[in-house]
Amino acid sequence: MKTGKLAPFKFFDVPENIKHLDTRMLDYLESGYRSWRDEAGRADRLRSRTRVFCLFLILRHTGAKLGEILKMDESKSFNFGRATVSLGVGKNKREVPLPQNVCRELKALIEGPMGMGIEGHIFHLDPGYVRRIFYDRAEACNIPRELGAPSVLRRSRAVELLRNGVPLGVMRKVLGQSSADLSAVYQDWPEGDVQNIVRRMALEESSLKTSARNTFIGHVTQIRRDGILADVEFETAENICISSVITLESLYKLDLEVGVPVSATIKAPLVAVRPLSEGKNSSARNCIRAAVTDIKKTEILAEVSGETEAGTRLCALVESWSIEEDGIKKGDKVEFSFKALSIVLHVV
């Protein structure tokens, strides 16, 4: 574990005059909205409550302004394949990732029977009506009425992002802010990095987590296709090049193109490991140099763990005799390798 540096996002305080809800209270409020929606008796009441509930979900998970959502054409704003929503206009235009569970709720409303007849203006609701409902829902959850306001949800999302280590510049991009009520040096962040950082947080909120070993995150650099398969290459921040072969159906389903952030995982039994000769520089694809950090062996199998100079962790599960034959031991320089067909590819 690396030490010696403080993480500022763990220590900052929010001024008392900034009204906001913490993540626990936001989740509690969301649960209250869900119960309120589910308690609707008649079909018309269910549709009305579902529209408000989904409006709340958007505000809670994007930090958008109420006016941005009330003017939204949902048929053009959501990309459920990529789990994103497009918000704002002009310099405040941005694409914000959403948790998968939120996408499921929105898709059920927009593409289901409740969305029929109101296509394109599902969220065109009276702002006064929305605010009254929001105040009432907060009060029903034993939360002060004023803390149910859309503006409070926006500030709460800002604090939540910062608490999770999202840089201030990225937070401002997500919220579409031209300024911030925080004294700091403002930095500009590329749109792709903004989406990448928040997508990872959205995945965590959806509990779609995976092992840190044999996991690579980067951006697609090249795609080659034939009639059946596609060879997708991407590069990580540590300049590791990964090549994955997937079907064309998967390529289109993932909506992959050059520049899209992706992650790749490889199961340990599909990873090979071999000693690395001094000065050897392999040109083979999906071959990664690392130092052995641990070896766990039984009579039959051996789990070899390694780490690159940049900190990427790898693991191979191989036959014990092969480790003994190659003389691999802790601290040795080795090469982990895997086939392009062994990779499971995800959009980040």
Automatic annotation (TrEMBL):
Which intervals hold domain Tyr recombinase?
32-199
Read off the InterPro entries from this record: DNA_brk_join_enz (IPR011010), Integrase-like_cat_sf (IPR013762), Integrase_catalytic (IPR002104), Mo/tungstate-bd_C_term_dom (IPR008995), Mop_domain (IPR004606), Transp-assoc_OB_typ1 (IPR005116)
One of its Pfam families is: TOBE
Protein source organism: Maridesulfovibrio ferrireducens
The residues covered by the Mop domain are 209-275, 281-347
BP-aspect Gene Ontology terms: DNA integration; DNA recombination; molybdate ion transport
The coiled-coil regions, if any, are none
This protein's superkingdom?
Bacteria
Which terms are listed as keywords in the entry?
DNA recombination, Molybdenum
What this protein is called in its record is Molybdate transport system regulatory protein
Which molecular function GO terms apply here? DNA binding
